[in-house]
Amino acid sequence: MRRLFALLGLLAGLAMACGPAPATAPLPPPPAAVTNGAGPPAAAPASALAVSTPALAPLSPPAKVRIAIQGGGTDGLFFIAAERGYFERQGLEPELESFASSSDMIPALATGQMDVGGLGFNPALFNALARGVGIRIVAGKGAATPGHGSSALVVRQDLYDSGEVRDLAGLRGRTIANTPPPNATGLAVALSRGLASVGLADADVTIQPLPFTDMPAALAGGAVDAAFMPEPLVTQVVRNGIAVRLYGSDELYPNQETNPLGYGESFSRDRAEAARRFMVAYLQASRDWVNAFDHGIDRSAVIAILTKHMSLKDPAIWEAIVPAGINPDGYSLYQSGIDDQDWYLAKGTLQQRVDLAAVVDHSFVDYALGVLGRYTPPTGGPP
């Protein structure tokens, strides 16, 4: 565990850099069990809010699980699971390694160097699957479900204030920054779908490929008119008066899954018990995230974990961001991946169709739900 947190301290998240870290209070020990994995009512004490596994003995000896991360927001799920003892209670010893992109994770998962990673439904993954690379899509890790537009299309403040750009139609002839490579990312699909919804073709705008971290300066200097960027950059440029949030990714492309969770084949096939136990811990952390960001339950404690281990150190920004959509019951929204594949084929950035449904394996989620039960929202309504 010491090695885990030493590694966590070294991670620099994509687009998550902020100012110096404020002091944070020590985290409490893992709390008592909550039956069936259901979140308690809002009035319950914070010490009883984290989910614990009922009557499941940990693996002995403990099993190492190697987790590939990029440092993006939903990697916080792994930190929550570690801090709250969910991995330990399953007899798992997580080891995290940082990768520059989800595409870089693919060979590491395929060769067994890594066991688990947050992937993307992009040409790199589809091409690997077409070559028979042994990766299974086992759960969701982040999606643009309603109210969870954790990426957003922003427009320069001066253009908005002047009335020149107040909606998607106003972007005709404008320059929009989006992450490279062109026509090969989930955000490219979402932006294209959003433009099409108001009758604009991709050719009606100029797409400027830029890394996320270069987008604020490009907006501030007038090099681009708009940008499609993730949190916390969205919150930061809005607070700094650089840009205005026009549309969230959940409005441009509802229910697009941006980050499926993948297992390497050697992990899912040869170490199936550890893979099942990992999913139990993962769903516990997912439910803590949903309780915190969707329902305000135990929010400050969850944010304390995230600021402790991630490079975004300002709790106020964590409070203000629009979070990614996390399914507390785990299942992947892989239909959006199938739809994205059609878009890549039409653009020519993908040449061969793969049967995505054939590599989706929800058996690990089924096992975890058998242990934890279905998620029950604290308020009794939909999460």
What does this structure look like?
The structure is a single chain. Residues 1-52 have low confidence and may be disordered. A 5-stranded mixed β-sheet has the order 2-1-3-10-4. It folds into 2 domains: 2-145 and 256-372, 3-Layer(aba) Sandwich (D-Maltodextrin-Binding Protein, domain 2), CATH 3.40.190; 151-252, D-Maltodextrin-Binding Protein, domain 2. 36% of the residues lie in helices and 15% in strands. It has helices at residues 2-8, 76-83, 86-89, 102-110, 123-130, 157-161, 186-196, 215-220, 233-239, 249-252, 265-270, 272-295, 299-309, 315-320, 335-347, 363-372, and strands spanning 63-69, 92-98, 116-118, 135-143, 151-156, 175-178, 206-209, 226-230, 243-248, 257-264. The chain contains 16 helices and 10 strands. α2 (76-83) packs across α12 and α12 (272-295) packs across α13 (299-309). The chain is globular and about 65 Å long. It is of the alpha/beta class and 383 residues long. The longest helix has 24 residues, at 272-295.
N to C succession of SSEs? HEHHEHEHEEHEHEHEHEHEHHHHHH
DSSP summary: helix tally: 16
Assigned CATH architecture of the largest domain: 3-Layer(aba) Sandwich
CATH class value of the largest domain: Alpha Beta
By helix and strand content, what is the structural category? alpha/beta
Tally of domains: 2
Shape: globular
Number-wise, the strands total 10
For the record, what is the CATH homologous superfamily label of the largest domain? Periplasmic binding protein-like II
Average pLDDT, all residues:
87
